[in-house]
From TrEMBL:
Residue ranges of domain Malic enzyme NAD-binding in the record: 278-531
Species of origin: Thiobaca trueperi
Gene Ontology biological process terms in this record: malate metabolic process
Family: Belongs to the malic enzymes family.
Active site: 111, 182
The protein's required cofactors: Mn(2+); Mg(2+)
Protein name: Malate dehydrogenase (Oxaloacetate-decarboxylating)(NADP+)
GO MF entries: malate dehydrogenase (decarboxylating) (NAD+) activity; metal ion binding; NAD binding
SMART domains registered for this protein in UniProt: malic, Malic_M
Binding site for (S)-malate: 164, 418, 462
Entry note: cofactor: Divalent metal cations. Prefers magnesium or manganese.
Residue ranges of domain Malic enzyme N-terminal in the record: 88-268
Keywords recorded for this protein, A-Z: Metal-binding, Oxidoreductase
PROSITE patterns: MALIC_ENZYMES
Length: 563
């Protein structure tokens, strides 16, 4: 059977010549093979390209300069997003070259915050098919549909059902922008080969009435499935993917919490998978807190942590902090949990609400009188760490942050909700309300600021520092499953890579330009756990780090050989 795509990956960096069957415009129009003006004369002759591209042969770096010139000419964030996606759809090598060389400038466009806007408008800015849609009505075809995808070597599948896209709620099939963005970060951050990544939308309908009424909406115009009908769709999807790509890792992303915990519990021992919002967020947040504690000289086990929001992210972070308090501070599980207070939309999560609480909130229900409001909780608890994961913009009030600072010299303030429009407070606010004393990190990026002549650089506490490396580790050693201990190791590894130069300006995370190095080190740590726990599917390579590095895709033009 002739395959629609070539095999796009050369695994031998020493002799990277790719055999190519396509010719002429068919080649130019394949984003995984296209080099545009970058095809050298020899390939223009051998591959039937003469006359099909402008005469000048342009280096990839000069192509990248043209891209950035045009990028800077775009008027709006959405234009910039669409411009980069057009490049993504035209020439993936160049897209990743540009992303990797302008990572701080472009990550906020392909990822949070702008990807949030792109998802809201997804049906209106849609240009070209990318990834796969598994619609509830097609459930009988899932097993055959997976063979419509041309790549046999898929390694990472990021799947959402669109039910909780960032802090923007149910965006239905518009949520596809999130798996696409996350997978771009897998390639940029950990060197996955682009054709080995697969973004997926599980289209089970949407509870978002405005979307269903939008004439341009591209998803199923039906109420969101729930109960057994929903479970059947997810089950059929996991089965089909696992049958076609048995070694692939499935990342569950942006599922509402009524599904997120259940699905993780159901599949985590069955297939290679994890939930990024629970586990990835837990790891990145613990790493940031550990960095902050290097500045204050305090211990994790001494911290009193208050969460505004008690959903997927809160539970994942709380569990990871508890693991840290137990491992490093010697606390018991119960003692560690007593250091953590969570608030949901009803106020403090307390034991007297136990019967009506969702399962995931119960372990953190405190034996305390009811308190409705964050300010009163802060007054009573006197937290040292405040984490916002409620998706409510501005919900860290000036009064609340000032009150926290009254009791705590260097308050750790992490408004983690995305995109920026949902952040619990801004960096400016946190620094202003604490006279620059806040140890701050946020889910979406904020610019550095200068206060009283002092440079303060807000860190970005986002799971993007974790999932690429965890994924690379799990895939490299063919892990049988992804465990919480791997995420804990990822957190400690990330924390260990924050330099004194970063801490001196209050930045609790490494600069993003280091993401590949971070991912390599996290991947090594994850593999070591897999080897130690007997979960690896390969024999341990003598030089594990080089083994991982050799797997990584570099965005450069590989010579082609006509076949
Ligand atoms: N920075 C990062 O890496 C990550 C950030 N997030 C962000 O965190 C936010 C929450 O995500 P999830 O936990 O998955 O959502 P979720 O829906 O599971 O949890 C939201 C929680 O906020 C609570 N809440 C809503 N309104 C509230 C209010 N006014 N006061 C107090 N609590 C309130 C809800 O009761 C619920 O417990 C989103 O904005 C998401 O973008 C999520 C994952 C990673
Ligand atoms: C970062 C992320 O995963 C979220 O906001 O959902
Ligand atoms: Mg997410």
């Amino acid at each position: 059977m002739s395959r629609p795509f070539e095999h796009h990956v050369t695994d031998s960096p020493d002799a990277p010549v790719l055999p190519v069957r396509k010719r002429g415009l068919e080649l130019v129009h394949d984003p995984l093979l296209n080099k545009g003006t970058g095809f050298p004369d020899s390939e223009r002759d051998a591959l039937g390209l003469r006359g099909l591209v402008p005469p000048q042969v342009v280096s990839i770096d000069d192509q990248a300069s043209r891209i950035m010139e045009n990028f800077h000419r775009q008027y709006s964030d959405l234009d910039r997003y669409s411009y980069l996606e057009t490049l993504h759809d035209r020439n993936e090598t160049l897209y990743y070259r540009v992303l990797l060389s302008h990572i701080n400038e472009l990550t906020p466009v392909i990822y949070t915050p702008v990807v949030g806007q792109a998802c809201s408008q997804f049906a209106h800015i849609y240009q070209r098919a990318r990834g796969m849609y598994f619609g509830a009505a097609e459930i009988a075809h899932f097993d055959s549909m997976v063979h419509n995808w041309p790549e046999d070597e898929v390694e990472i599948v990021v799947v959402t059902d669109g039910s909780r896209i960032l802090g923007l709620g149910d965006l239905g099939a518009n949520g596809m922008g999130i798996p696409i963005g996350k997978l771009s970060l897998y390639v940029v951050g950990a060197g996955f080969h682009p054709p080995r990544t697969l973004p997926v939308m599980l289209d089970v309908g949407t509870g978002n009435r405005a979307l269903r009424d939008d004439p341009l909406y591209l998803g199923r115009r039906a109420e969101r499935l729930t109960g057994p009908a929903y479970d059947e769709v997810v089950d059929a999807f996991v089965r089909a993917v696992h049958a076609r790509w048995p070694h692939a890792l499935i990342q569950f992303e942006d599922f509402s919490n009524d599904q997120a915990f259940r699905l993780l519990a159901r599949y985590r021992d069955q297939v290679l998978c994890f939930n990024d919002d629970i586990q990835g967020t837990g790891a990145v947040t613990l790493a940031g807190i550990l960095s902050a504690l290097r500045i204050t000289g305090q211990k994790l086990a001494e911290q009193r942590v208050v969460f505004l929001g008690a959903g997927s992210a809160a539970r994942g972070i709380a569990d990871t902090i508890v693991a840290g308090m137990m491992a490093e501070g010697g606390l018991s599980l119960e003692a560690a949990r007593r250091q953590i207070w969570t608030l949901d939309s009803q106020g403090l999560v307390t034991l007297d609400r136990f019967d009506s609480l969702s399962e995931h909130k119960r372990p953190f229900a405190q034996d305390s009188a009811p308190i409705a409001d964050l300010l009163d909780v802060i007054r009573t608890i006197k937290p040292t760490v405040l984490i916002g994961v409620c998706g409510q913009a501005g919900s860290f009030s000036e009064a609340a942050i000032r009150e926290m600072h009254r009791h705590c010299e260097r308050p750790i303030v992490f408004p983690l909700s995305n995109p920026t429009s949902k952040a619990e407070c801004t960096a400016d606010q946190a620094y202003a309300w604490t006279d620059g004393a806040a140890l701050f990190a946020s889910g979406s990026p904020f610019d550095p600021i200068t206060r009283g002549g002092r440079l303060l650089v807000p860190g970005q506490c986002n799971n993007m520092y974790i999932f690429p490396g965890v994924g690379q580790g799990a895939i490299s050693c063919r892990a049988a499953k992804v465990t919480d201990s791997m995420f804990y190791a990822a957190a400690c590894t990330l924390a260990s890579l924050v330099g004194e130069d970063s801490l001196s300006v209050g930045r609790l995370y490494p600069d993003l330009t280091l993401i590949r190095e971070i991912s390599v080190q996290i991947a090594v740590a994850v593999c070591e756990i897999a080897f130690a726990e007997g979960l690896a599917g390969i024999k341990r390579p003598n030089d594990l780090e080089s083994f991982i590095r050799a797997r990584m895709f570099e965005p450069r033009y590989v010579p082609y050989e006509a076949v």
